[in-house]
Amino acid sequence: MAMRETGRIASRARPVYRLHFPICTAPEGSKERGVRNIKPRCNEGSIRWRNPNGGLRVQLHAGYTSDFRACFAVDATNIAVKVSQEFVINSDNQISSHRSSYLHAVAITTNRTKEICIPSSSSYPSVLLYLETERLQHQSGVQKVTFHYVMEPIRSNRLLYNPMEEECRPCDPRELVRAYCSSDFVVTGKMTAVTHLDDLDRTKMDVEVTRVIRQKGQLFTYFREDQSLRGSMVAPRHCGVEYGVGDFLFTGYLRLGHMAISCSPYLSEWRQVLTAALADGTMECEVD
């Protein structure tokens, strides 16, 4: 996804096995204390929990005939959140039949967790997660928790790792064309800042957009000061993205509430690839 050369921030296009699913939002939690059970109907989405009180039990079960993995990240605002995986144990004997469970902590945050992926199995066809909150002392403001998730089919052992963690290298022409035609966002613009977020294993890149070719929803926003269109994207920290001067084509996809970089060549390089693809008939979509 990135090269350590200054300004070179290209990667492979979105993996072909990543399926497109509608994004949905589950209803917000109740202000009353207790445990709320939620079973999302979508394979990808966000659960927003305002004024959290008590616990939130999330059952992730995808409609696949094979095993899947559930990847998630949690954003916390003005509150601490502990995320645990719940394991249910069934006990069947001639005398009684009962269920018991235990929790295994996987993350604690007062900001945002790393991306965490948990595979399903024949023993545990659903991934059960339990979120509990703790008030912070001397903290004011609205308290809320956002749980981002995505469920992905596991078709081979290769898919057990995060698709964002693929080898950091420039996209080849074919991958650039595919990224241009299928990404959730395609824009041109310049870098304004690059920040390494070691606690998240991510690098955040702030950009000023000069042209929006395509975006899924309103991903980029205007700043009142200069009416410029801006946004932030992320890349794996180990890719070594550095600040670069020049005009770029930025492409990528939405993942767990963040815009993840896919292919991002210099704009001059993309124009050469585009010209060649139009000439030899390998362009996969219309060009605006």
UniProtKB/TrEMBL annotation:
Keywords: Disulfide bond, Secreted, Signal. Signal peptide: none annotated. It is found in: Secreted. GO terms for cellular component: extracellular space. GO terms for molecular function: hormone activity. InterPro entries: Meteorin-like, Netrin_domain, TIMP-like_OB-fold. Residues 168-285 form the NTR domain. Belongs to the meteorin family. This is Meteorin-like protein.
